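Hey,

The postdoc asked me to send both predictions to you directly instead of through the lab channel. I've kept everything plain text so nothing gets mangled by the mail client. Protein one:
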Amino acid sequence: MLNRLSQRFRSFQREFPRAFWPVVAVSFVDGIGRTLLFPFFALYVTQRFNVGATQAGLVLGMFSVSGLLGSMVGGALTDRIGRKKLIIVGLVCSALTTLALGLVNEMRWLYVVALVSGLFGELAGPAHQAMIADILPEKQRQEGFGILRVVNNLTWIVGPSIGGLLAGWSFLYLFISDAVISCIVAVLFFFYIAETKPKPVEGQAQESLGTTFAGYATVLRDMPFVAFILTSILLGMVYIQMYGTLSIFLRDQHGIDPQGFGLLMTTSGITVILFQLWVSRVIKWRPPFLMMALGAAFYVIGFSLFGLVAAYWLFVGAIIVITIGEMVIVPTASALAANFAPEAMRGRYMAVFSLVWALPAALGPAAAGFVLDNYDPNLLWLGGGLVCAVAMAFYYYLHLRLGRQAKFAPQQQ
């Protein structure tokens, strides 16, 4: 299996543009910095400031809320000043605010720094997405985003292992390491990554800064795109429960300890690493909105199972079913968002696309907590399955309405 995976990577290396691979390599380095810190942050907050999980969750929620603003500002600036400059600025500012998170010694100041850190942490997100869309032609975007998913999952194997070792010595080492890695990535971008922002049409006047930000109104008037975003937010509200609420549910309702939950997450990561490239190659020949509906169908089954079964091996099966849906949905959604966007507005479109993850991260855990505290906990997962079914129906509707357009047509074999 690993030999076939290596062969598939070499095949992709020959097929994809040379400019794509330095971005992939640098993303891997950046991902290690992110994943060596993030899994331990809530633990750091509760231990360092002697507070409960509620306060730690509030800090994480503040990251998400300020990240929304950072993403919107970053999307406009990406279209205005270019991808490379904004990514470098975002990395350096993120390094400084991350270091500040590790040095602050009062809870009230942690809230303030978290707001600033979330803002700069998401500033360059749309620029990264726009850069990939710039480099890859439409026919390769779905597979390209799939490759980035494999790389991201590899960082989740490497990063937390390093982070656990560093945290055993001092939590401060986590923040220092992440800041140093961000600076290294900024240097790599400066020397090895070329600007990819399309050149303006000859004779076309450059937008003013105000006009650039006003361009978000144009994005929000693109009703098919807005429908796609709202449907994806519905799906994201359910999916986000896998990374927070699920561990509490399995512990309290089924007695599964953190080690058992960690094994479930590892199963998901290994599944992506082994099969994402193959799945990406298979689904690129199929209508993308129809593939989104198919992925949502896997979510319906997987999340509903958590409310219906009690055996650990069935929970493993549910995670695998969800991961299959995830391998279909995530790269397809990124490719669709890029294909919706006019070339000159990619940054702003990708910034609005970031709502698909940011809003569920900000609102989903609180909504799930309300259900767990006041109703039968199994209803959370059965209701989640129903929400995914609604999203599946909307994706199928978008397939019927938009599937014949050239920019949403599957590749021809």
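Protein two:
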Amino acid sequence: MICGYLAAALGIALTPAAFAQSYPVKPIRVIVAQAPGSANDLVARIVGNKLAESLGQQMVVDTRPGAGGMLGAEIAARAVPDGYTLFMTNSSSHGSNPALYARLSYDAVKDFVPIIFVAASPYVLNVHPSLPVKSVKELIALAKARPGQINYASAGNGSVHQLAGDLLKTSGGIDIVHIPYKGTTPAIAALVSGEVSIMFATVTSIQPQIKAGRVRGLAVTTLKRTELMPGLPTVAETLPGFEMMSWFGLLGPAGLPPAIVSRMNTETAKVLANAEVRSLLNAQGFEVMSGTPEQFGDFIKNEIAKITRLAKAAGIKAE
């Protein structure tokens, strides 16, 4: 098949379908707005390595940490929409940031084209073993009996941990006190020591503590039960509609040709259905997602709207 560049040189017009089949003809850069070794970076590399095999071109992960994910997102938004710069977004750059910051250097909806929902990581609602509860229902009852006396940890103001805690407050009609820490590690340490009583944490970060009996996992924050934490119910079984998770997905800059969007959606969906890829993602605490570009676009809009409502009601502001 004549490649896109050669066809252009010869003045041959390619149909969208032919253009998509000729793409890619060179390596694809995937921008990650977090540091090397972060969850976002791991997802991009696991999926990117298998995509490189199916596409026949290298997928180059370009980590651009800074400003809470805003730096990388801005670079991706300003990229040429030719399919050779994509963005592995997450629940910060296209979830909490647009909801919590009055001004961003990019528009999370208008500056990007959704390609596919890639993966999600549920949170676990945990309590210190000294708290006499073994279910979400019991926790809510205890909190109602002790208003303002039970606290919960987060990795900082505006973090998903705080958002989940405030969603628990509003959904359960309880008064619990937020204690922000400078990162996930010190927050978990505070939970283990009993300095705080409650914390929402990712599966991978809290599972060793649960297995060791240092904390008690009560429920997961996805709408359906997850194989990542077998045996745990969902918070939604007690508080219908409760959902909060870290998530990751592939976007392109605005103006990305529909043919390329379709091709990348199809190829990535195949990769996500691969048993090896699913196993690697599961081992890191991620559930495999998928779906159409339209479904992912709707999900992003709904996430921004949900967090905006929650932040406004709870008075949450980003640091």
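Summary for protein two, as requested: The CA atoms of residues 116 and 292 lie 6 Å apart.

Thanks,
C.
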